[in-house]
TrEMBL record:
Domain of life the protein comes from: Bacteria
Cited PANTHER family: CONSERVED TRANSMEMBRANE PROTEIN-RELATED (PTHR41282)
Keyword Methyltransferase carried by entry: no
Transmembrane segments: 49-69, 75-92, 99-119, 131-152, 164-186, 198-221, 233-250
InterPro entries listed in its UniProt record: BaxI_1-like
UniProt-recorded name of the protein: Bax inhibitor-1/YccA family protein
Keywords: Membrane, Transmembrane, Transmembrane helix
Length: 262
């Protein structure tokens, strides 16, 4: 399977056969040359991916809406920390855990609801829920557009493109870290997260990189389906797509808040 920028997809089995268990082969592993006994599990389909991704999105939207309506921005930081820990467990755990993916979705919803409340109500000029609607619309619009781009083959996922996207993600991650460290010594740090021309340009750059990373996510999911991995791995794909969607939503939230700020 081609390398992907999303760590969640590194858990997907690679190679031929069904989930690397030589599903459907004959004459191997049997002294009589007969096909092995039927597996209890089944290969993953696109319906599995769509269903699991829809479940995670609905759960995230539900807890996010409740957190926003409860006006509880203080829950954003602890939810972010808990979500980070859960994501590490999901990535490094060897077995698929739907419960952990569901827990991650619920916690991420609390984080997004809290941070959305901050952006909508706690700046010098309250932006209101309009900025949230714009961010959601932008996120879903980019997701749909990149899905069309991938399915039509307008942009092919090649090893060169994959390396470029991974390098770009690493680059912006380093810039964000440097900006954070500099903010302890200089007001505003490098200015990458300020409502200025530089801040707007950086958010646009991050949105572009996040959009292209969807191509790698779609490609990894497509290859997993075609290689016949276990249907349970659809939860991994849903988790991976969720992480990219969260990043994209946060960047749109920042961008629209910059554009509407005084």
């Amino acid at each position: 399977m081609r390398t992907t920028s999303n760590p969640a997809f590194k858990n997907l089995p690679t190679g031929g056969g069904y989930a690397n268990f030589d599903y459907g082969r004959t004459g191997q592993g049997s002294p009589f040359g007969q096909a092995p006994a039927a597996q209890a599990a089944r290969p993953m389909t696109i319906d599995d991916v769509v269903t699991k991704t829809a479940i995670t999105l609905v759960l995230t939207a539900l807890t996010g809406t409740l957190t926003y309506l409860a006006a509880a921005p203080g829950l954003a930081l602890p939810a972010a920390l808990i979500g980070f820990v859960i994501s590490l467990v999901i990535v490094f755990r060897k077995k698929v855990s739907p419960a952990l993916v569901i827990a991650y979705s619920l916690v991420e919803g609390v984080f997004l609801g809290g941070i959305s409340y901050v952006f909508a109500n706690m700046f010098a000029r309250a932006l209101g829920p309009g900025v949230i609607v714009q961010a959601v619309a932008g996120t879903l619009g980019v997701f749909a557009a990149m899905l069309v781009v991938y399915k039509t083959g307008a942009i092919r996922v090649t090893p060169k493109l994959t390396k470029w996207i991974i390098g770009a993600i690493a680059g912006v991650a380093v810039l964000m870290l440097v900006n954070l460290l500099m903010s302890f010594f200089i007001d505003g740090g490098l200015g990458l997260r300020q409502p200025t021309g530089l801040g707007i340009a950086f958010s646009l750059l991050c949105i572009g990189i996040a959009a292209f990373s969807f191509l790698l996510d779609f490609d990894a999911a497509d290859r997993a389906i075609r290689s016949g991995v276990d249907s349970r791995f659809a939860w991994y794909i849903a988790f991976g797509l969720m992480t990219t969607l969260v990043w994209l939503y946060l960047e749109f939230l920042r961008l629209f808040s910059y554009l509407q700020s005084d």
